[in-house]
Amino acid sequence: MSSHAQNRARVIPLRPVPAAAPGPAPAAREPLWRDVVGDVLRRERLAQERTLKDVAEDARISMPYLSEIERGRKEASSEVIAAAARSLGLGLADVLSLAQVEIGRRCTAASRTSPARASLGEVRLAA
Predict the structure, then answer these.
(1) Phi, psi (5° rounding) for residue 43?
(2) DSSP state, residue 22
(3) Is the distance from CB of 8 to CB of 1 less than 8 angstroms?
């Protein structure tokens, strides 16, 4: 054996890598709060035909940070969400209400595409 071969570590995975099993597709993931809130803020900003810069300046938050919030990259505090909402003429309750509707819509769409979720819903209804 060469000296190079002796220095190689043998790697044993802690968990076996699962092979792609045939069968139903995995359940759709539930929407993340930061994605939904970001989508709501962006949709409202675009509906008002306002720029990211305008809303960020009015809300007194940085434009890059607001952009990351809208893209679901940052988990904003309630104070920052409220400031962005006020800049758009909304209250925090308005954003929460719009986010609730959006989460309901996404979860309903996910349950239609996921056989596992659909059957779980049928079990709950039957019980």
Answers:
(1) -60, -40
(2) S
(3) no
3-state secondary structure of 18: coil
Backbone angles phi, psi at 85, to 5 degrees: -65, -45
C-alpha to C-alpha distance for 113 and 63, rounded to whole angstroms: 36
Distance of CA 73 to the CA centre of its chain: 9
User: Strand, coil or helix: what is 32?
Assistant: coil
Token pair recorded at residue 42: 């962006």
Q: What is the pLDDT of residues 9-65, one digit of tens each?
A: 776 667 666 666 565 555 567 889 999 999 999 999 999 999 999 999 999 999 999
- Are 15 and 55 contacting, i.e. CB atoms less than 8 angstroms apart? no
